[in-house]
């Protein structure tokens, strides 16, 4: 069985879109982040969905980058490395929240609350070493990676350039999150999620026919003589 590069590229597009959809989905259903909620079914469901989102997003952005590797240049490489590292950190934290924190909830609730407070902004009453630093680091990777990757997509003119701009705007909107209540700040993820869906569709569609400079399939074909 031969697996073509075009088919793999379309798979990456589907995974990018799946990641964006899951990123949006988990925001309104995410339980409160404390030791009392981590043993519930909703917490486990959100955790597994987040891990799938992170893996799908990583594969998706690598596929997007490889489709335009020459056109995106160093900016695209920097963007995919930074944004990809954000997805790796997200997976690691989701893994810990889903499989490590629930068994500890009864024995060490202060530790669990402190660990979850890294991203909720609630703070911690226990020593967590360097872990609290990873929250701001992940946020920085998210913003810089999203901006650079989106700009590279816009400049490359391979995929839909408007999706690249939406990714830039979505990443920058995260800078407003500290000014909002935590529950409301979650919805800053929606523009980035929509951008990933859009980019995934654009990546999938460009493999099915000639594309314009916006990454959109042509509906017409040139006349032959």
TrEMBL record:
Domain of life: Bacteria
Transmembrane segments: 41-65, 77-96, 133-154, 163-181, 187-204
Entry keywords, A to Z: Membrane, Transmembrane, Transmembrane helix
Name of the protein in its database record: DUF4386 family protein
Organism: Pseudonocardia ammonioxydans
